[in-house]
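Cross-check.
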Amino acid sequence: MQHYGLDIEMEFLENFADQLDTIEEKSQECTPQFELVRQHVKEWSKMCAKSFQSKSDELSSICEIHDDINQHINEIKDSFLEINEELNIPNPSSKTIVAKIFKLKVLIQDLQKNLEQCKAEISYTEKENIDLASKIKELEQVISRKRENHDSEEHTCMII
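Predicted model, tokenized:
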């Protein structure tokens, strides 16, 4: 009787050892794949970090341009007020009015340049945002595929 119980325990230990060997083999097979995925994710993470830093820099640049545009708009308003004041004088000086109109024209041209620069920055940022979203989606798909592959593999182990 004792011998029979010992046989059952030995059989159990052999089965258990076989299961551990199988798990170890599968683990060794999966390790390079997981390492590859880990490296891939690490590279994507670095790339995303750089992209997000770039986005932050671009937004700062756009905010600076926006501030410049607001300043130019205020200068244009002031220029219009100066011209109106000059026109309200009984005998306005044509040279002064022409000089102020020329100044206004320069301010408007500068404003147009800033608006074009802002538009270009926004277009560039939108393009990069689309690229970044595409890369993030691709990374999510890679992770999802690896997760599905990992979940579909059988990992059995009987522990008592």
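Residues 155-160 have pLDDT under 50 and may be disordered. Residues 63 and 90 are 43 Å apart (CA to CA). Passed to J.P. for a second look.
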